[in-house]
Amino acid sequence: MGKRRESFKAVQRSVVRVKDASGQTWGTGFFISREGHLLTCAHVVKDAGDWKNVRILDQPVNCLYEGDPERDDFCLLQVKDLQVTPVELGKDFEPGDEFLSFGFSNDDFYGAPIQGKITDSARCGKLGDQELVRLETFSDAQRIEGGQSGAPVLRCKQEKYYAIGLVVASEDLQGGLAISSEVILNKLSHLISSKQKHSKQFFRYSLYSVSIALFFVISSIAIHITNQSSSQCSVDGITNYYDQITDALGHGQEKKAFSYADELVLKCPSSYLAYLYRGRVFARSSKMDEAILDFQQATELNEKSSEAKYNLGTAYIDSNRYEEAVEVLKSLLQDSSQLDPKSSLNVNDIRFQLGYSYHYAAWKTKVKVEDKISYLERARNLYQQVIDNTSRNCCSGDAVEDNCCPKNRALAADNLGGANAILYSITTNKLYLKAALEALDLGLESKPQAQRINDLKLIESGIKYDIQQQINLIRSTAEFSKFMPKLKTTAGL
């Protein structure tokens, strides 16, 4: 899957129906922060019967800014206690650029896609004579209709989609009109400034609430800030952010970790470390599509970063995209002589993850038999290299230490057993059967005593998950039964 497709899927998840309390759809909205801040049209909210009657994902909303359909046709809402994937905002577009949008024109059609081009700006007397973005669709079948009011206007730049505007009106077969993201941001900034100078009540909620919302909006905007703070974006400054992020995660404060990570990306958008660290927060939260996008950005900003490439490779693995993981990790292994000696990453980590990628590409994806065998042979070779480059006797005797042996040695041995078991099931070659049993024994030997006993019970039980499922491919053989006493001796029984 390409980066553009990944970005498109992430954006799709942020676009939602704007309904009333009875469940009727009145338009479209899209999230712009992970804290549930959402943009839609003011006239959509009015049609739904006021913001108090609006429901997003069946949840009530707060209104942080309620625009006027006759003046500034947008609203800033928030759904509390909801974690979502936001659309990033952007200002950068030119007449002639292509756009993509999708919204909900009726209750039966889910996310109607619209493609076209941005023709120019236009002024609309019905909206306070403000300047709007004029959109021309590519075909009559994709015309902008009422339910698409509030949909994002998306532009793709460097394989990533940004919302450069908000659909506010249809021009029937000719296309439609949109308020630009820049106008929305400027309006919110201006209103906050006015609130500070005057006593007029511009907002339904407090200045503090709106300021916080605006912070999240601006945090999501995808523009490179050239005047970065030298202290905040120095090595020490970024390390300080990293410490705050890891401390928040260590205390289970995921929202706080995301807040620090977003702030770091906002302040230091040219630093690959900013995207690397935010990507790790995404990965920790199992938001792998978003993690992959950040790791890709980190590798683009610093093509020599082994940690960015390694994290991208492992994120592909966690997304079951094994062949893409192979390409990234193979490239990293070829350049392993350039690994930063200060990094905790070492060549055995890369070998193991690359072996795992080949192994599971063969085990979990549909490939030709000859390719399956080839992948498994490469995995065997890489696992064996990891084993050969770690100490054999680190867990001798009745060792009970958690880390008496490098973790990758035991993992490599277990996976080597699984790969050999698969190869035996394909070829019936007993050399693979013997190698699988020997690898299981080596795996037990490479673990602390308590874990040896536990893993032996797993081998005996035939529980069907991951490596155990692969070992089940050789369980019925006479050789397996004859080898069990040896495994019990290794386990200390």
Order of the strands making up the biggest sheet? 5-4-1-2-3-7-6
Rg value: 28 Å
Percent helix range = 40-55%
Structural class: alpha+beta
Strand content: 15-25%
Q: Quote the CATH topology of the domain at 1-223.
A: Thrombin, subunit H
For the biggest sheet, the summary is: 7 strands, antiparallel
Calculate the terminal CA-CA distance, rounded to whole Å: 48 Å
- Helix/strand order: HEEEHEEEEEEEEEEHHHHHHHHHHHHHHH
Query: Given the structure, what is the number of helices?
Result: 17
The best one-word shape is elongated
- Looking at the overall shape, the CATH architecture of the domain at 1-223 is Beta Barrel
CATH class of the domain at 1-223, named Mainly Beta
Low-confidence stretches: 195-208, 221-229, 397-402
Mean pLDDT: 82
Number of strands: 13
Please give a structural write-up.
It is built from 17 helices and 13 strands. Among the domains are: 223 residues, Beta Barrel (Thrombin, subunit H), CATH 2.40.10.120; 104 residues, no CATH class. 48% of the residues lie in helices and 16% in strands. It has a seven-stranded antiparallel β-sheet. Strands 8-9-10-13-12-11 form a six-stranded antiparallel β-sheet.
Write the layout of secondary structure elements.
Blueprint: H1 3-12, E1 15-20, E2 25-31, E3 37-40, H2 42-47, E4 54-56, E5 59-60, E6 62-66, E7 75-78, E8 98-103, E9 112-124, E10 130-137, E11 152-157, E12 160-170, E13 176-180, H3 181-197, H4 207-219, H5 235-250, H6 254-267, H7 272-284, H8 288-301, H9 306-318, H10 322-334, H11 347-364, H12 369-388, H13 407-427, H14 430-445, H15 449-461, H16 466-471, H17 478-491
Antiparallel strand pairs: 1-2, 1-4, 2-3, 3-7, 4-5, 6-7, 8-9, 9-10, 10-13, 11-12, 12-13
Helix pairs in contact: 1-8, 3-4, 5-6, 5-7, 6-7, 7-8, 7-9, 8-9, 9-10, 9-11, 10-11, 11-12, 11-13, 12-13, 13-14, 14-17, 15-17
